[in-house]
Structure formats: C-alpha cells, structure tokens
C-alpha cells in the first residue's frame, strides 16, 4: 500500500490519559496521523479504544495530554483550547464521525436527501436544486438507489443506513473522519461490501481516518498503520502489514494467533 509522506502531521496526539473514577481507561496515548492516512485502533473489548476516539474527536476531554489538529491554514491548533463554537464548526465541516450504530449518526425520520444535505446547509448552501442534486450524487456514490432520496433511513436496511451515514459525513469533503466500529453488527456479506466502499472512498478522497475496530481483517483491508491497545495503553504501533505479519508484543501475537485459529 502506498503510504503518503507529507511534511506535517494532520493530528498530533500526546500523552492522552483518562480515568473514570478509579479506573484508568486510557494511559499516555501518543501518535501522529498524516494527511490521507488511515489508522486503525485495535484491541479487545474494554481496552480503551472508544475512550481514545472520543478524546481525540473532541467529544470527551481527556484528563491529561494534548490533541492538536492542523487547520486548513496550516496552523496546528489544540482542539481543547478551541471554543465550543469552533469545535462544532470543525465537527460539521472538516471532520466526520461515523458511529457504530447508524441511528446515532443519522436523523432517522427525515429523508435520506435531507440527511446528506444538512451538513451542506450548515456550510451555508441554501439552493434547493443544488442540495438535492449533490445529495442524489452522494447516494449513488455510496450505492443507494437515488430513487430512495425522499425515504427516511428508518425504512433502510442496516447496510444502507451505514452507507447513508458515510455519505452524510463525506459530503462536506472532510479531511479527517473518525469511525467507531463502522462495520460491526452487519452481516458478513454486507460488511464486505461496506469495507470495499470505504476503501475506495478513502483512497479517492485521500481521506485521513481513524478507525476503531476489534476486527483485524478491517485493519488489514483499510489501514496504512495501526495501533494496538491493551488495558488503556498503546502496546504496539506500526505499518499494518508489519504489525500483523510480524507482531512484536505478546498481546498482539495473541490477537493475531487467535484470529488465525478459529
Ligand atoms: N462512561 C464510563 N464510565 C465508567 N467507566 C467507563 C466509561 N466508559 C468506559 N469506561 C471504562 O473504561 C475502560 C475502556 O472502555 P472503552 O469503552 O474505551 O473500551 P473499548 O476498547 O472501546 O471497548 P469496546 O470494544 O467494548 O467498545 C473500560 O474499563 C470501561 O469499563
């Protein structure tokens, strides 16, 4: 897989920690993400993956550490030093967040077209014809029949809902998308199609993404690089193929071998 090597990181995470009461959910996580790079965060249930994702996506502030994002202007900005209004603007323009459960990322009772158009309206687009044609284009890009544009996602299958959620996030051409277990909970064949689509879109759009998954096959297929978490710590990180083919940490070795031995 070609690895993009631009000069400066898009996201820089340093020593991020978080506790819930006495429980340490995340301890000293650090990594950089480069423009156009897809990073998988893997680890078993409870290892701190969602806590990490929420901390770096400005959804839940860490107790310690910094998260810096490179704005389009080139300026590296601490996301927790931003005002709430600045964070919200980022979240609906340059960032996307794909939830595991599509219902958490969609408005289930408004039309598919409105779900896609909403983020564009948030950027100031008001022209009905343009909103509708962009929404129709995006439905096609995520392989949803444009004839369903006026239907609400409540009437969609699980796979269609997830594809709609992806369209809703990507319509503003974000530079960074966070994804929390985007394919789990779907049938295997539906997962495979969704993974193909995600791979195609991340490449076409040169999208940087951080994907939380417990499924090493998802990491293998989508990610340039991966970090492995155990009990709140990053225990191994590196190029995906290297980590999966030659894991160094005993925990990663266990994860990889448990996948190989069904
Ligand atoms: N809101 C919360 N209150 C208390 N403890 C929490 C909370 N959220 C997470 N934790 C604890 O923090 C640790 C890390 O949880 P986290 O959800 O980040 O793990 P995960 O790797 O995402 O797990 P899963 O794959 O099951 O979603 C766990 O021990 C969990 O019980």
List keywords for this structure.
single chain; alpha/beta; Rossmann fold; six-stranded mixed beta sheet; 24% strand; binds adenosine-5'-triphosphate; Oligopep_ABC_C
Structural notes for this entry:
It is a single chain. This protein has a single domain (11-260), classed as Rossmann fold, CATH 3.40.50.300. Strands 6-7-8-3-9-10 form a six-stranded mixed beta sheet, with helices on both faces. It is built from nine helices and ten strands. The protein has helices at 49-56, 84-92, 112-122, 128-141, 158-170, 188-204, 216-222, 240-245, 250-260, and strands at 11-20, 23-33, 38-42, 64-70, 76-78, 95-98, 176-180, 208-213, 225-230, 233-239. Helix content is 37%, strand content 24%. Adenosine-5'-triphosphate (ATP) binds next to strand 2 and helix 1. GO terms for molecular function: ATP binding; ATP hydrolysis activity. InterPro entries: AAA+_ATPase (IPR003593), ABC_transporter-like_ATP-bd (IPR003439), ABC_transporter-like_CS (IPR017871), Oligopep_ABC_C (IPR013563), P-loop_NTPase (IPR027417), PhnK (IPR012700).
Provide a compact summary of the structure.
The protein is α/β, with parallel strands linked by helices. The protein is built from nine helices and ten strands. The chain has one domain: P-loop containing nucleotide triphosphate hydrolases (Rossmann fold, 3-Layer(aba) Sandwich).
